Amino acid sequence: MAQAARHHGLASTFMAKPYSDQAGSGMHLHISVLDEAGNNIFDQDNGAGHLDAAIGGVMHSLLDGQAIFAPHGNSYRRFQPDSFAPIECTWGRDHRGAAVRVPEWHGAAARLEHRVAGADANPYLVATALLGGILHGLEQRIAPPPAIEDEAHARQRSEHLTHDWLTALERFAASPAMADIFGTAYRDLYARIKRHEARELMARVTDVDRQTYLSRL
Predict the structure, then answer these.
(1) Which residue from 23, 117, 119, 182 has the fewest beta carbons nearer than 10 Å?
(2) Distance between CA 75 and CA 83 in Å, rounded?
């Protein structure tokens, strides 16, 4: 990718929000599950309710996993109103503003789409978090919250994804669900490393600080 960009006189990056005046870059994962016979268990026509349980599991661990879906300080600049990124913990059928979208719920194409992760996230960790949430939902038969119908509906009754990195890290570090999915040792190590990274960045005085405050305070 970098070589192709340079060939055209461009630069490439996986930053989630490289420019403040443009939309950020997300990583959307589409997930379905097949049984041993190759049948999509999320097909709602089979009457098993597996898709609802999977959505319930993903929604149950959505906030706890945000430190995985948004692993850097810059990641949280995506989670702003009118930024083309989900900011509420919602799901909806073919709803492109929801954190979890269900593009299709009948037949072989039935699946859920996770829209929270940024382009800077590790796809293996994101997939692990999502598959772990799905497994938990299927095993515990977790019922999902009601699907949203519009943005106003979402804002009225939904929990919000945080735009603060440290808040996401503390929630991840204290999460039994993340310990079950990643193992307690990995969860604690990840949180420790990311806290150190956050402290290092927060200690730096940036050009934005100086431009905003130097002549005013």
Answers:
(1) 23
(2) 13
CATH number of 24-213: 3.30.590.10
Could you tell me the two tokens for 189?
């190590």
pLDDT in tens, 141-168: 999 999 987 555 545 557 899 999 999 9
Q: Which two tokens stand for residue 23?
A: 């939309």
Instruction: Tell me how far apart the alpha carbons of residues 133 and 180 are, in angstroms, rounded to a whole number.
Output: 10
Query: What are the beta bridge partners of residue 111?
Result: 104
The domain ranges of the chain are 24-213
Chain length of the chain: 217
**In contact, 91 and 144? CB cutoff 8 Å:** yes
Helix (H, G, I), strand (E, B) or coil at 81: coil
What does the block give as tokens for 197? 């990274």
> Is pLDDT of 89 > 70?
yes
The dihedral built from the CA positions of residue 153, 157, 159 and 160, taken in this order, carries a sign that is positive
Q: Dig out the tokens for 160 from the structure.
A: 């919000």
Spatial distance between the Cα atoms of 16 and 117, rounded to a whole number of angstroms:
9
**Minimal CA–CA distance to 33: which of 105, 87, 110?**
110
